Amino acid sequence: MYSNAIVTFLDVLGFRSLIKNEGADEINSILEKMSECAAPENEDDGDSYQPIITTFSDCVVRTNFLCSEANIAYPIGLLFFELLGLVHAQSELVHNGVIIRGAVAFGDIVHQGQRVFGPAMVEAYELESNQAIYPRILVSSKWMDALRSNELIRSRNNTINEEKNHILKLIRKDKDGEYFIDYIRAIQSELDDPYRGYVEFLKEHSLLIKKNLQKHASNPRVLMKYEWLSNYHDECIHELDEELLRHFGRSKKSLLTAVI
Question: How far apart are CA 226 and CA 230, in angstroms?
């Protein structure tokens, strides 16, 4: 029997290239990092607020059932918390040198153990495969309709507009009209040190992008994905206060990824 849920599908960017060019130990290390950050061990059987998670190869499926016993008793805002969890996962994976992409969808699914199927799974997979393209986690265009139509997806303490505004702090509309998780901006307020820690995160992020731009310079198909990430990163850098950066021994130029 299908259940209504928020379904997220994730995979490692450029995994096909990794299989072709890296050894088994390196690939295994990447997959371990993916599991630690994006797919921590399930702590329950679906009756709490935690997502049910299944991993296979470099892919992760996360399912948040709207009709769990806990969420029916007290809706906490499952969509907001899934998006926030993905902000943390993407950011933590940066520390481990791993870049991911994915998609968040809404609808019916069966997710029992390793068995996962249903319309929401198909939508999440197709969004990731056909539209994400770049290292971004898309959010289905249905997210606002879902927010309005299903009270179990939002917090019981918020109006629809309040919940929408909280969510809009975590996502951003791209140039192609798709919403994606804006993890570079959103992670700042989540850090223990939202200033020094954020500057160090941006430096690490910059170095990871530069490394991959150089590594994939001769592979246009992969390079275009890191060029998108470079543009997204640099857009965020240009918004920062130069004086604040100098206080922490950095400058916009030192954090940019594009060649000036």
Answer: 6
CB atoms under 10 Å from CB of 97, counted, come to: 14
Per-residue pLDDT at 260 exceeds 60: no
Share the mean pLDDT of the chain.
92
Instruction: Give Rg (Cα) of the chain.
Output: 19
Mean pLDDT to the nearest integer, 55-65? 93
Q: Is 250 helix (H, G, I), strand (E, B) or coil?
A: coil
Closest CA to 171 of 183, 161, 188, 159: 183
Strands (E), the chain: 3-12, 52-56, 59-65, 100-112, 115-117, 137-139, 171-173, 179-181
pTM, 2 dp:
0.93
Q: How far apart are CA 66 and CA 204, in angstroms?
A: 36
Q: Which one, of 142, 153, 135, lies nearest residue 120 by Cα? A: 142
Domains of the chain, residue spans: 3-186, 191-255
d(CA 163, CA 67): 19
Instruction: Give the residue from 97, 109, 126, 91 showing the smallest Cα distance to 9.
Output: 126
Helix/strand/coil for 67 = coil
Check if CATH label 3.40.1000.70 holds for domain 3-186.
no
What is the spatial distance between Cα 13 and Cα 93, in angstroms, rounded to a whole number? 12
Of 94, 96, 97, 88, the C-alpha closest to 189 is 88
Of 97, 100, 103, nearest to 138 by C-alpha is: 103
